[in-house]
Amino acid sequence: MFKSDVQYLKGVGPRKAELLENLGVKTVYDLITYFPKEYEDRRQLKKISQVQDGEETGIQAQVINQKIIYTRKRNGILKIFLTDNSEEVVLVCFNQMYLSDILKKGVNVVLHGKFERKLARLETSNFTYEILDGSDSDLIHTKRIVPIYGLTKGLNIKFLRSLIKRTLDKYADSFQDMLPGIIKDEANLCDYIWAIKKIHFPGDWEEKRKAYRRLIFDEFFLFQLALAFKKKGIKKKKKSFTYRLKRTLLTPFRQTLPFDFTPAQKKVINEIFSDMQSIHPMNRLLQGDVGSGKTVVALAALLLAVENGRQGVIMVPTEILAMQHYINVEKMLASLKIKVELLAGGMGKREKKRICQELKEGKIDIIIGTHSLIQEGIDFFRLGLVVIDEQHKFGVNQRALLRNKGLNPDVLVMTATPIPRTLALTVYGDLDVSTISECPKGRGEIITQWMKDKRAYKKVSEEVKKGRQCYIVYPLVDESDSLQIKAAVKMLEKLKNEIFPDYRVGILHGQMKKQEKKIMMEKFVGKELDILVTTSIIEVGIDVSNATVMVIENSNRFGLSTLHQLRGRIGRGKHTSHCILVGEFKTFEARKRKEVMLATADGFKIAEEDLRLRGPGEFFGTQQHGLPELKIGNIITDFEIIEKTREIASKTLERENLTNSDYSKIKDALWERFGSNLKWLSVG
Fold first, then answer.
1. Other C-beta atoms within 10 Å of 74: how many?
2. Closest CA to 558 of 530, 589, 527
């Protein structure tokens, strides 16, 4: 019944069914669960004499006359006159002659519209009406809290509202409540059928609140239950090996570091080591702000795997980041007898073949690479630990393919984009989460400012004269006809020849060949360049402590998280650094991004604001498939209910495992919602 095509509902047909499909409504169930986006309170009616010019409100009146006025082009305009004995009002009906047969003399109506006073008389041409011929409880467009739905071209709000009401009246009572009484009591929830009716047509705001709470509980509960099942499944798996803290590599590694671990790093390392020493595979998310020292923590975990005779792998989204990791890791492990290799797409066949053979034979301890690592023919001897950096840049299948290269290996996924708690609970409920909440001491302050080009370039000159280095970042590589903004390649010559003729200027972007990128990076790291012209390709991974200025050209074109990630490339040494935003912030969202960047450098606060501005669907970008498809819930505002559903889902699974007959409807709903394809629940 609920899967029936909407075109067979009274008043729909094939044409309107096509329009409804534009809203994602194909079936009766889709229609009933097409929830209002907002509501209008039309309960209070005014006397016509009380209505102000330009006011949008409701009135109740009786039709007293009709008149058709003809224009010069002989087009007729229907005017309908009504009164409530306090004053008259005129409905001006353009292209609505059919109303002359509906709103006849003597008919009583309730009207809601925007009224204007013309020639001392009240008029409206933008109105909704309902004829009073029964109980007020039958009204759905006026004299009540009225649902407002998202529309598509060709669909009328009054038609859609009426269709939903008729469909609810006919089918709503056939719904089944999946939750047993024990859960409804525990969460203080109303009945599901009641909620479905009241979310569309609440009698008051309290009814709407109760209905909303019940429906979002159901949405998040199913998702949290699926995550809990997945987490339980991971915990059931067993590794084919166990780790011991031998310290044959870990102790010498720690002694060679020019710094001590921060308390936050020590805490996280202990959490990771505890997981790795368990008989069950680790499935942990490590999050921390830019520059918080996640890489060195991951390296400690990799060394634990290596000193226990296992191999480790680091997969990153870009060749530049892979190269940067490779350079850093080799340097940090130079005194230890460890074989580290880089595998990237641009390698020659002979070199790649050698690496693949050595990896398969166990001669390579740690391998660092991009998507190349998941290709067929890349086999490990004894893979023990998978580290995925900037994991949200990878699709679910890519992460799973890498993990499947080993037999239940430990998995550590890392992100420098801090995840707001609401999102972490919703997307990463099947992971254990570790957070590095502080940055290493001794680093200089980062001052963020908004400037014009000339002042920004003056600051670059000041810093270069002190022996420092600078980044100038552009949103594009080549000039775009559609976006008239400066591009890195076009600006390079101008920067080199006109603006900074006395300085050494280089360029780095994603379209360069691998060897060209490597040379340019090595030059900048080796202080052979003063200024690096680049794109957002340096958003992650570049670590040059002598770089103290970042000029972000056309910064209004970048998202908030990207701006923060770019800023994180400076401030890595002891000197004060300067992040300079250049660009025109004209829209509300752009101005808000600028305000947040100028106000705080706290990545978690920035992530919260970014989530609020962009919404959860855009927060991770197009490749992240970990977000549930929500009909009514809101990850940003429904934090309290998300926490409640997580708690009850966990209890339910521990208590019943859904084997009790009282939970059969939950089991059915879970299968209906997610089926056997739970790929999007996975992070690795």
1. 6
2. 589
Residues 6 or more apart whose Cβ sits within 8 Å of residue 284: 271, 272, 275, 411, 412, 413, 431, 432, 433, 434
Residues 289 and 278: their CA atoms lie apart, in Å, by 28
pTM of model > 0.70: no
Report the percentage of the chain scoring pLDDT > 90: 40
Give 189-212 pLDDT, tens digit per residue: 999 999 999 999 999 999 999 999
Q: What one-character DSSP code corresponds to residue 260?
A: P
Looking at the predicted structure, is the pLDDT value of residue 678 above 50? no
Tell me how far apart the alpha carbons of residues 34 and 200 are, in angstroms, rounded to a whole number. 9
Euclidean distance between the first and the last CA atom of the chain, given in angstroms as a whole number? 38
- Write out the residue range of the structural domain in which residue 91 sits: 44-143
- Tell me how far apart the alpha carbons of residues 131 and 140 are, in angstroms, rounded to a whole number: 11
Q: 457-507, pLDDT tens digit by residue?
A: 999 999 999 999 999 998 876 666 555 556 788 888 889 989 999 999 998
pLDDT of residue 17: 92
Lowest-confidence segment of 218-222, 231-235, 409-413 by average pLDDT: 231-235
Does residue 469 lie in a domain region? yes
pLDDT band at 324 (very low <50, low <70, confident <90, very high): confident
- Does some domain include residue 149? no
Q: How many whole angstroms separate alpha carbon 537 and alpha carbon 532?
A: 12
The token pair that represents 270 in the structure block: 């202990």
Residue of 234, 228, 230, 193 whose CA lies nearest to 210: 193
Spell out the residues 6+ positions from residue 230 whose beta carbon is closer than 8 angstroms to its own.
430, 678, 681, 682
Total number of residues shown for the chain: 684
Q: How far apart are CA 302 and CA 306, in angstroms?
A: 6
Q: ∠ CA 237-242-243 to the nearest 5 degrees?
A: 135
Q: Which residue has the higher pLDDT, 434 or 205?
A: 205
Domain match, 541 and 559 both = yes
User: Are 432 and 531 in a shared domain?
Assistant: no
Q: What Cα–Cα distance (Å) separates residue 543 from each residue in 324, 325, 524, 540? A: 8, 10, 10, 9
Whether 212 is in a domain gets the answer: no
What kind and span of H or E run contains 328? helix 319-332
Q: In angstroms, what CA-CA distances link 627 with 125, 276, 552, 557, 684?
A: 43, 28, 31, 25, 15
Q: Name the DSSP class of 444.
A: P
Task: For residue 89, give the CATH number of its domain.
Answer: 2.40.50.140
**Helix axes of 263-276 and 294-306: crossing angle, nearest 10 degrees:** 30
- pLDDT tens digit string along 554-592? 898 888 888 888 898 888 888 899 999 998 888 888 898
Q: Looking at the 3D structure of the chain, how many domains does it have? A: 3
Same domain, 324 and 450: no
pLDDT of residue 679: 44
Q: Which pLDDT band holds residue 395 (cuts at 50, 70, 90)?
A: low
- Cα 648 to chain centroid, rounded: 25
Nearest alpha carbon to residue 594 among 550, 538, 621, 554:
554
User: 261 with 123, same domain?
Assistant: no
Cα distances from 3 to residues 16, 293, 667, 677, in angstroms, run 17, 52, 19, 20
456 in the same domain as 429: no
